[in-house]
Specification:
The complex is a heterodimer of chains A (443) and B (355).
Chain A: H1 2-9, H2 19-32, H3 39-46, H4 50-62, E1 66-71, E2 81-85, E3 91-97, E4 101-107, E5 113-120, H5 127-145, E6 150-157, H6 185-193, E7 197-201, H7 202-213, E8 222-227, E9 231-237, E10 240-241, E11 256-257, E12 260-261, H8 262-266, H9 268-280, H10 285-294, H11 299-307, H12 311-335, E13 339-343, H13 345-365, H14 368-371, E14 375-378, H15 384-398, H16 401-407, H17 417-434
Parallel strand pairs in A: 3-6, 6-7, 8-13, 13-14
Antiparallel strand pairs in A: 1-2, 3-4, 4-5, 8-9, 9-10, 11-12
Helix pairs in contact in A: 1-2, 2-4, 2-16, 5-6, 7-15, 9-10, 9-12, 11-12, 11-13, 12-13
Chain B: E1 28-29, H1 37-46, E2 49-54, H2 60-75, E3 79-85, H3 90-100, E4 107-110, H4 119-127, E5 131-135, E6 150-154, H5 156-168, E7 176-182, H6 187-203, E8 208-214, H7 220-230, E9 234-239, H8 242-254, E10 261-264, H9 268-275, E11 280-285, H10 288-303, E12 311-314, E13 317-319, H11 324-332, H12 338-354
Parallel strand pairs in B: 1-12, 2-3, 2-4, 4-5, 5-6, 6-12, 7-8, 7-9, 9-10, 10-11
Antiparallel strand pairs in B: 11-13
Helix pairs in contact in B: 2-10, 3-4, 5-6, 7-8, 9-12
Classes of the chains: A alpha/beta (443), B alpha/beta (355).
C-alpha cells in the first residue's frame, strides 16, 4: 500500500529539488519490503533512470541505510548484486502495558523482535511507577544486548487510543486508564529516549502482531478478539489495520447480551464470579476445594477445572464462548475474514470448550460463503503479539512515504524537522511545568 | 525472607512463582502436570522413544536433569534413546537437531544454546512431526503450539529476587551492592539480573548498584576484583550463577578481600563454602531433577495428545548455611558430601558454645 502511493507520487523524472527525497524514499521502501533488490529491478519498479538509481543507492549506502548484499539470480551475463536494507541501522523499543503485566522488547528496523521480557505489574501502581519500570528495563536491555540506538518507541495501552492530529504529535489525553488522565506518559517516554513514540490500543497491536508473525501470517483479512477482564476486537481488512474515525474501533465488549454488557457477563471477572458462586453453593466440588485451598478463584482455576472434566466449568466456558460468538457473528458477516484469532487470559485458560462455543455461534449465524473457509483458532503468541504489533506500528509510521521523505536525506527519523520541533516543544513545556512560578510567590 | 527458614524443612521454603513465561504466560506449576491411571496405561502401551539435547552433559545440573528425565520416562515405559552433548556449540546443536528430525524418535527435549541462531533448527524438528519440549527458554520468535510444545523452566525471576533479599541483609544503609553479570544474550541470566535489580530498587532504594560483566568464565574473577576496587564501600555481590561466583570468590580471597556473595544453584563448592561460613551467604537453587521429571511428564502429555500449557515452571529453593545439608538432599537426591556435614558440625558446635 505504502509502496503503491509512492509509485504514483514519483511518476516521471524528478525535476524539482524535492524530488530527491521522493526517489530516495521510493527506492528504500522497494528494497526494505523486498519488492525489488537488484539495480535492474529497482529501475523497472521505480521508473527512474539508471543514473538516478545509481546516485540514490550510493547516497543511501553512505547514509548507512542500505548495503550491498549477496549476488542475485543471473538473467544472462553477470549475476546482479542485491541491495539490502540495514535493519540494524537503528532499533525500536516496544512495550505493551496491560492491566496486570507489562511486556518490553527491542526489535530491528524490520520489526523483528530481538529480545523480550515480561513481568507482573499492576496498572493501579500508577503511571509514574510504570514509566520508571519501562525506562529502567529499556536502559538495561539496550546496554545489555548491545543493540543499536533506538529510532522510535511503539506502545500498546489497555484501551482505545485517539488518533493524533499530526505526525509526531502524541495523543493529547490518555483516555485509556482513568487514573492516568492528564499524566504526560507518552511525552515523558518520548523525551527520555529522544525518539518519536507511536501508541495504539493493546488489541490493535495484538491484531497486527498476529497478522505479522502469528496465525494470521500471510492473510489480509483477520479478526483478533481479546478475552480478558474486558473484551475487544481488532480488524485487519485487506492488509490494513482498521482504526476507526477516532481510533476506537473494536469495542465489542460493549455490545449487549440481554440487559448486560458482553464483558460484564463473559469477561474474566464475570467468569471468576460465576465460579465463586458455584464453589459456594456446591455446583462444583473441584472449585470448592480450590477455593478452600487458595482463598480465591480466577479464570485460570476455572479453565484448569474444565480440563480435568468439571462439568460446571465446561458448561460455563461453553456458554461464554457462545455469547462471544454471537457478538462476533455480525462482524464476521460484515468483513468476511479468513481467520479469527482468540487471545487473552480467558482464551488461554478457557480450553476447547470455550473455542467450541465461539465456533458454534459464529458458524450458526454466518452466511455459508462467509463461514466456508473461516478458521477460528486460539492465539499462540500470548503477550508477544502486542510487542510484534507495536514494532510493526513504528515501522509503518517511520517508513510511510510522506514521513520517510521528511528524514531520508538526513539518514535518521530522529533528524526529521517535524520531530525536532515537537521534541523542542515537549522539552520547553516540561521545563515550564517544572520551573518555579515566576514573580513574587509570597508577600 | 530468611527468617522464614527457621524451623522449616527445605520443602516448605520453596518460593512461589514470581516470573512470567517467555511470551508473558502465567505459570502452570510443574506439580500440576499429572497423569490419570488411564493415561498412564496408554503411555505404557505405546512405548515412546525420546531423545535429549543438552548444552553439556558434564555439569551437576545436567546430570540431575537427565536423571529426572530418564527416571520419569522409564516409569511410563518410554525409552530415552539418545542424549546429545552439544558442548556449548551452536553448530553441534543445529546438526544434532537436523539429524534427529530423521531418526526414529517421537519427541525431543532440548535446551536451546544460542538465542536466535538455533531457532530454525528447532522449528525444523517440529515440522518433521516430532514433539519438541524446551528447557529453560524459547528462542525469541518461536511460538508454542506451532514451533514447540512447552517450555519447562525454573522461575529465574524468583531466583533473582531471592538472591537480592538474601544479600540485602548484608548491605548497610546507603551502601553499595555489585552484580556480576553474564555478557552473553542468555534469557535465564537476564531474568535473574532484572529481578535482582527490581527487588533492590523496590525494597532497598538506598543501595547503589554497580555491575561488571564477563563473557568467558575466566573473566569472572578479574571482573569481580575490578568492581571491588572501583567501588569503595561495596558491601556485597550477586553473581548470576555458582561457577562464576566461585571464580570471583577465589580471586577476591587471593587479594585479601572478604565480601558477602549470593548466587544461583547449589554446586558442591558453593555449598561447602557456605557451610564453612565463607563468603557465600545465600543461594537461590534450581531443582534440576524435578525439572527433568516435569519435562518428561510434559513430553508424554504432548505425545498422548493431552492439553499442555506453554510454560511450566518450578519454584526455586532458598538455601543458607542453616539448611544447606537438607537442601542438598532435596536438590541433588543424594546425601550431602562428608566435608559439608563436617563443616556444619563444627558450625553447630561453635554456635552451641557461644550461645
Amino acid at each position: 500500500m505504502a509502496e503503491e502511493k509512492a509509485t504514483l507520487r514519483s511518476v516521471g523524472r524528478p525535476r524539482s529539488v524535492d524530488a530527491a527525497p521522493a526517489s530516495l524514499a521510493l527506492l528504500l521502501n522497494l528494497v526494505r519490503t523486498g519488492a525489488a533488490t537488484t539495480r535492474q529491478e529497482l529501475e523497472r519498479r521505480s521508473e527512474l533512470g539508471r543514473a538516478v538509481v545509481a546516485d540514490r543507492l550510493a547516497t543511501m549506502i553512505e547514509l548507512g541505510l542500505l548495503k550491498e548484499g549477496e549476488l542475485g539470480q543471473a538473467t544472462g551475463g553477470r549475476a546482479p548484486r542485491q541491495m539490502q536494507f540495514r535493519q540494524d541501522a537503528g532499533s525500536l523499543l516496544v512495550s505493551a502495558i496491560d492491566q496486570s503485566s507489562i511486556a518490553l522488547g527491542i526489535a530491528d528496523l524490520n520489526g523483528q523482535l530481538l529480545v523480550e521480557h515480561h513481568e507482573a505489574a499492576p496498572i493501579e501502581a500508577g503511571p509514574e511507577v510504570i514509566l520508571d519500570r519501562l525506562t529502567t528495563i529499556f536502559d538495561w536491555l539496550l546496554k545489555e544486548t548491545e543493540k543499536p540506538a533506538p529510532w522510535g518507541i511503539g506502545l500498546a495501552l489497555p484501551g482505545p487510543i485517539e488518533k493524533p492530529p499530526t505526525d509526531f504529535e502524541t495523543v493529547p489525553v490518555l483516555q485509556t486508564v482513568q487514573s492516568w488522565q492528564g499524566f504526560p506518559f507518552l511525552e515523558r517516554l518520548s523525551m527520555r529516549f529522544g525518539v518519536p513514540i507511536f501508541a495504539r490500543s493493546g488489541v490493535q497491536t495484538m491484531t497486527m502482531g498476529e497478522a505479522k508473525a502469528g496465525g494470521g501470517r500471510g492473510l489480509s483479512d483477520i479478526i483478533y478478539i481479546k478475552l480478558g477482564r474486558s473484551i475487544s476486537a481488532g480488524l485487519i481488512s485487506e492488509g490494513r489495520l482498521h482504526r476507526g474515525a477516532q481510533g476506537a474501533a473494536g469495542m465489542i465488549g460493549h455490545s449487549r447480551v440481554g440487559e448486560d454488557l458482553l464483558e460484564a457477563v463473559a469477561g474474566a471477572d464475570a467468569i471468576a464470579r460465576e465460579g465463586m458462586a458455584a464453589a459456594q453453593d456446591g455446583r462444583s466440588s473441584y472449585l470448592a476445594q480450590t477455593l478452600g485451598r487458595q482463598g480465591e478463584l480466577s479464570v485460570v482455576d476455572i479453565g484448569h477445572a474444565a480440563q480435568l472434566g468439571d462439568l460446571f466449568c465446561l458448561e460455563l466456558l461453553g456458554l461464554c464462548g457462545r455469547m462471544v460468538g454471537e457478538a462476533l457473528a455480525p462482524l464476521t458477516n460484515l468483513v468476511n475474514p479468513a481467520l479469527i484469532v482468540v487471545g487473552g487470559v480467558v482464551a488461554e485458560s478457557g480450553g476447547d470448550s470455550l473455542l467450541a462455543g465461539i465456533r458454534e455461534a459464529v458458524y450458526r449465524q454466518s452466511h455459508p460463503m462467509v463461514s466456508r473457509d473461516l478458521q477460528i483458532v486460539r492465539s499462540q503468541m500470548g503477550a508477544s503479539s502486542g510487542l510484534v504489533g507495536a514494532a510493526q506500528v513504528v515501522v509503518e509510521e517511520l517508513f510511510a512515504p510522506h514521513t520517510l521523505q521528511g528524514w531520508i536525506g538526513l539518514g535518521s527519523p530522529l533528524r526529521h524537522p517535524d520531530f525536532q520541533k515537537r521534541l523542542e516543544r515537549m522539552t520547553a513545556s516540561a521545563a515550564a511545568k517544572a520551573a518555579p512560578p515566576a514573580g513574587r510567590v509570597a508577600p | 525472607m530468611n527468617s522464614k527458614l527457621r524451623g522449616q524443612t527445605p520443602g516448605d521454603t520453596a518460593m512461589s512463582i514470581a516470573g512470567l513465561g517467555p511470551h508473558g504466560e502465567r505459570a502452570v506449576p510443574a506439580d500440576q502436570i499429572q497423569f490419570t491411571e488411564a493415561d498412564a496405561v496408554v503411555a505404557r502401551t505405546r512405548r515412546f522413544s525420546v531423545a535429549v539435547v543438552l548444552h553439556t552433559t558434564t555439569s551437576d545440573w545436567s546430570k540431575q536433569e537427565l536423571a529426572g528425565i530418564a527416571a520419569t520416562l522409564g516409569l511410563y515405559s518410554a525409552a530415552l534413546v539418545e542424549v546429545v552433548d552439544c558442548d556449548f556449540d551452536v553448530e553441534l546443536q543445529v546438526a544434532a537437531l537436523a539429524r534427529l528430525a530423521h531418526e526414529p524418535v517421537d519427541a525431543v527435549i532440548s535446551i536451546p544454546i544460542g538465542n536466535s541462531r538455533v531457532a530454525a533448527a528447532h522449528r525444523a524438528l517440529t515440522e518433521s512431526g516430532r514433539k519438541l519440549v524446551l528447557l529453560d527458554n524459547a528462542p525469541t520468535g518461536m511460538l508454542p503450539g506451532a514451533d514447540y510444545v512447552s517450555v519447562v523452566s525454573t522461575d529465574n525471576f524468583g531466583l533473582g529476587q531471592s538472591c537480592a533479599a538474601m544479600l540485602s541483609t548484608h548491605i548497610p544503609r546507603d551502601g553499595a551492592a555489585g552484580i556480576l553479570g553474564y555478557g552473553i544474550d542468555f534469557f535465564a541470566t537476564h531474568e535473574r539480573e532484572i529481578a535482582f535489580r527490581k527487588w533492590m530498587g523496590h525494597h532497598r532504594p538506598d543501595v547503589t548498584l554497580v555491575r561488571e560483566r564477563f563473557s568467558e568464565l575466566e573473566g569472572a574473577g578479574p571482573a569481580a576484583l575490578a568492581m571491588v576496587e572501583k567501588t569503595p564501600g561495596l558491601a556485597g555481590i550477586f553473581a548470576v550463577w555458582d561457577v562464576p561466583a566461585m571464580m570471583a570468590l577465589r580471586v577476591l580471597a587471593q587479594n585479601g578481600i572478604d565480601i558477602p556473595l549470593t548466587t544461583v544453584d547449589l554446586g558442591n563448592e558453593v555449598a561447602l563454602d557456605m557451610a564453612r561460613q565463607g563468603m557465600i551467604k545465600g543461594i537461590g537453587a534450581q531443582l534440576p531433577y524435578d525439572q527433568g521429571s516435569a519435562a518428561a511428564r510434559v513430553t508424554l502429555s504432548a505425545l498422548l495428545g493431552l492439553p499442555v500449557s506453554p510454560w511450566v515452571a518450578l519454584a526455586g529453593l532458598e538455601v543458607t548455611a542453616f539448611n544447606v545439608v537438607e537442601a542438598y538432599q532435596v536438590i541433588w537426591h543424594l546425601p550431602a558430601p562428608r566435608a559439608i556435614i563436617d563443616a556444619m558440625r563444627i558450625l553447630v558446635a561453635t554456635k552451641g558454645n557461644s550461645d
